[in-house]
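Structure first, sequence second, as always.
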């Protein structure tokens, strides 16, 4: 358990230091990974939503 805790703390400290140095900025790999994570979240959320026919018609009329 102590080893897991140490690893978690070391990971968190390194992550925060990387953010402080701005290592997340202008990095295409980081941008791609964050985009992928957002897409996964949106896919999960969109599966929960079942829009009504009225909402679909309003959306279609607005963006068509």
């Amino acid at each position: 358990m102590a080893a897991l805790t140490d690893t978690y703390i070391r990971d968190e400290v390194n992550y925060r230091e990387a953010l402080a140095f701005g290592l997340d900025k202008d990095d295409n790999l980081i941008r791609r990974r964050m985009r992928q994570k957002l897409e996964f979240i949106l896919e999960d959320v969109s599966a929960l939503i079942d829009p009504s026919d009225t909402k679909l018609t309003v959306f279609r009329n607005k963006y068509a």
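Margin note: DSSP finds three helices and no strands in the chain.
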